[in-house]
């Protein structure tokens, strides 16, 4: 009994520590962190749905902008023993924490090289590999439109034909920014929306709404086209209807 309580206490303490670390980094650089708390369980589940849908097949998976690892921890147990996970994180303190996470995670014990952490910007990530699934946690609405274009183009380059990119966008950010932002900031945000809309029109196969997150978010699934038409996408289990 005491062991169970102790394990639970350790999990709570870990989550609290990660929350404070995330908040500290957000205060340090809100533009690149993009939030004041890690992704919640419902959001992490929606982002990792394409991995679960293809289990237990071996997959090559890339996670970009992993932060403190909230989505990473939801992702790792879904990977089959022959799968590979690459994690890209530009923040050196987050990257160090992620490296400790994958080194110690019991689901990754076994064949060497199944998971690796790379301290890099997503658009500069240099790899010979292509991926079946890319999970992006980057705050794209915080970046310049030119950088968003580079990031999204790089994601699509890194996908196998038929591969899926998942990313999220918080609800209501455009409205909130319009009330407080300068004209230049409003123009930047509108330009980013335009870039994202272009990619969505070309590649989107699904959009889910995750209300059980703070703040609520849309999760988009984009797919690099196959030569043949892709099968219809299954409904999103995380979407709740009002």
Rg estimate, integer Å: 18 Å
Order of helices and strands: HHHHEHEHEEHEHHEE
By CATH, the topology is Rossmann fold
Q: Tell me the CATH superfamily.
A: Vaccinia Virus protein VP39
CATH architecture: 3-Layer(aba) Sandwich
- Total E-strand runs: 7
Strand-pairing-aware structural class: alpha/beta
CATH class: Alpha Beta
| Major beta sheet, strand line-up | 3-2-1-4-5-7-6
The biggest sheet amounts to: 7 strands, mixed
Total count of helical runs of at least 4 residues: 9
**Distance N to C terminus:** 41 Å
Shape: globular
| Total domain units | 1
Mean pLDDT: 82
Percent of residues in helical segments?
40-55%
The quaternary organization reads as single chain
Low-confidence parts: 1-34
In terms of DSSP E residues, the strand content is 15-25%
Describe this structure in words.
By secondary structure, the protein is of the alpha/beta class. Strands 3-2-1-4-5-7-6 form a seven-stranded mixed beta sheet. The chain starts with a helix and ends in a 19-residue tail after the last strand. Helix 7 (145-158) runs parallel beside helix 9 (183-203). The chain has one domain: Rossmann fold (3-Layer(aba) Sandwich), CATH 3.40.50. The protein is 44% helix and 19% strand. It contains nine helices and seven strands, in the order ααααβαβαββαβααββ. The chain has helices at 2-28, 30-33, 41-47, 49-54, 70-75, 92-104, 145-158, 173-180, 183-203, and strands at residues 60-64, 84-88, 115-118, 131-136, 159-170, 204-210, 217-223.
């Amino acid at each position: 009994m005491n062991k169970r309580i102790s394990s639970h206490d350790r999990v709570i303490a870990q989550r609290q520590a990660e929350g404070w670390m995330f908040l500290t980094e957000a205060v340090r650089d809100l533009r690149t962190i993009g939030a004041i708390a890690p992704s919640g369980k419902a959001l992490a589940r929606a982002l990792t749905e394409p991995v679960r849908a293809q289990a237990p097949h071996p997959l090559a998976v890339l996670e970009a902008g992993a932060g403190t690892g909230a989505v990473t921890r939801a992702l790792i147990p879904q990977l089959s023993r022959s799968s590979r996970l690459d994690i890209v994180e530009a923040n050196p303190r987050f990257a160090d924490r992620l490296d400790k996470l994958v080194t110690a995670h019991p689901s990754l014990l076994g064949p060497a090289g199944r998971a690796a952490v790379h301290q890099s910007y997503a658009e500069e990530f240099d790899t010979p590999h292509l991926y079946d699934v890319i999970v992006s946690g980057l705050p794209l609405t915080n970046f310049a439109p030119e950088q968003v274009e580079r990031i999204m183009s790089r994601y699509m380059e890194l996908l196998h034909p038929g591969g899926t990119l998942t990313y999220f966008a918080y609800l209501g950010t455009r409205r909130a920014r319009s009330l407080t932002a300068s004209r230049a900031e409003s123009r930047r945000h509108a330009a980013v929306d335009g870039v994202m809309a272009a990619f969505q029109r070309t590649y989107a196969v699904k959009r889910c709404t995750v209300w059980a997150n703070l703040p609520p978010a849309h999760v988009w699934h984009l797919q690099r086209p196959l030569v043949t038409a892709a099968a219809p996408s299954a409904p999103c289990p995380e979407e709740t209807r009002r």
